[in-house]
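Sample 1 of the test manifest.
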Amino acid sequence: MAEGQDEAIRPGHLWLEGKTLVHLREDQQRPTHMPRGPAKRTGPGFLNPAMAPARTRSLMLLADALEHHWLVKPGHDLRALDALCATGVRVRRWRNEIPGEVQPRLRIAANDLDEFALNWLKRSHESFPPRISVDHALEDDRYERPPQGAMENGIFIMQNDARIALMEAAYQWIDLDPFGSPVNFLDAAIQGLARVGFLEVTATDTAALTGSSASSQQRRYGAKGIVDTYAHDDAVRVLLGLVATTAARHDRVIEPVLALFDGHHVRVSVKVVRSKERASKVMDWMGWRIREPEGRYQFVQHPTPEEVERGSGPLWVGPLWNKDIAGRMTEERALRLCSPSDKEIADAKDAGLDWGQDDQEYAQREIRRSVRHIAQAADLMSREHLLLHIDDVPNMAGVPHAPKMDVLFSAIQEVGYSAARIPDIDPFFVSDAPLEIILGCVKSLIEAD
Ligand SMILES: C[S@@+](CC[C@H](N)C(=O)[O-])C[C@H]1O[C@@H](n2cnc3c(N)ncnc32)[C@H](O)[C@@H]1O
């Protein structure tokens, strides 16, 4: 650790994210239990608590890949890189909270340009080592030249420009969580993946993705938006579209596993597979969302100039999630993986954590919230569906107000279709029923009231 840094990184207080103890900077307030939106402060050593749910989902997906063998064969190792790791909360949570049985197969690398943040990571990792000690030697044969860095208790820590770190080895798992837009890192990330890999991308430039900042959207994503009910879904699809077309330029094809608009950021998680043949067909999955009268929409692949006027795109029009993987992301599973036991809380308190019964209840609620609605919506989100905002439905059906969502879902199921709420701060739902059927159910429920 550099001279003078030790003093600078003396922690203000301890915080528990999932089961993992983290140091917070002295000038960072203790997070509230409902952190939302962009961080009020940023800078090295600052932890954005609003990203905790995204980190929880990330470790759930990684655990699932190791346990269900959908990325590497049983018995094989999986190399994961957090290319912009900051103070390393994500990699420390991967090491600490993914089940012990699969930990020996998980090789973790963490990279950031910022020395202060990396020292913070080392300090926290040293003070609060993972429950299971996993020590891998560097896989020398994987690297053209040994990267600069050091193995610290099961995490290989590097200080590089991410674009260089991404090229160091063929990773099977890459996490890209930059400030703002990920566009600068996407090519290197795709090229840095193994033949079959997994890429998670965060974008906080939601104004560009939704089109509320039209010029940035055009420049960064080559897209045009309409800021209406569908702006969140469009933002997810615009980012997926960019990831898909970037992958295709490198002879790869994406298979979305989870893609969400989570308040102040968009996060997409995709499997990336090398296949020239399938990559050549990437444009089959790209199109436009054209607004039709009365709040309706349709996806069109080759819009007319008039349709472009009332459309957003180009964007990804394929499936958004993987049914089986997202279907296993239940609240129970999240709690089992990430909620600390009484013993773990007692140990954390011995280490100086100030944590009461209320804190524990709020933390559990937050862990549940990280995956709320995902498992129930997994089937519909992995195939063709219609997306609706519940508040738009009364107008479309010509009734004074909307029915309760659960009641509406039961009515839709009774006539042979499916419907489910999706995770969004707004009350959106998806269904495979034709719009007329849904509106018919709404009408009969309200008129029978
Ligand atoms: C949003 S933070 C990452 C947060 C982290 N993933 C987490 O979950 O706590 C973005 C990080 O990117 C780093 N960064 C920015 N540009 C970089 C570059 N070109 N190469 C490596 N790191 C970079 C910054 O130092 C910062 O720590």
